[in-house]
Design a protein that fits this description.
This protein has helices at residues 2-21, 70-77, 106-116, 120-123; strands at residues 38-45, 49-56, 58-60, 63-68, 84-89, 92-101, 130-136. The chain is an alpha+beta fold.
């Protein structure tokens, strides 16, 4: 009987771990997007409604990052759905993605952008006040 209880406990634990480890959005896999050059993100502002912005992206340590210039950063900061945005990437759309400011990643993301995009030689000198990690919306 003790062995049967142990197997039940093990199965329950395995199921719980699988549910926690599963992405909150079906199909979300940043590694798959590493070779993509751009993504679109949707913000909503009270004064002008919905707006799709297109930006470069990089994937570092299996996480998806974007670096925003002043206008895109303003849209993100004034987003009435914050921290939620919608994302379009690789012909897929994800309705609820968390956009998390990660200033501590600004240098690493900038270096990755410089390595990935040859025209970053010009873009890197523009102001980029916001570096963002995008991840599936976390369950409450």
């Amino acid at each position: 009987m003790a062995a049967k209880r142990c197997v039940s406990t093990l199965c329950a634990t395995a199921l719980a771990l699988a549910l926690v480890a599963a992405p909150a959005i079906a199909g979300w896999d940043p590694v798959r997007y590493a070779d993509e050059s751009t993504l679109g993100f949707l913000t909503v502002r009270s004064e002008d409604g919905e707006h799709w912005s297109t930006v470069w992206l990089v994937v570092l340590d299996d996480q998806l990052y974007i670096r925003l210039g002043s206008r895109a950063a303003a849209r993100m900061n004034e987003n009435t759905r914050a921290p939620i945005v919608s994302i379009r990437i690789a012909k897929e759309e994800f309705a609820e993605v968390e956009a998390i400011a990660v200033p501590e990643m600004a240098e690493a993301v900038a270096a990755a952008m410089a390595e990935k995009y040859s025209t970053d030689i010009f873009v890197r000198y523009l102001d980029h006040p916001l570096t963002v990690k995008l991840r599936p919306k976390q369950a409450p």
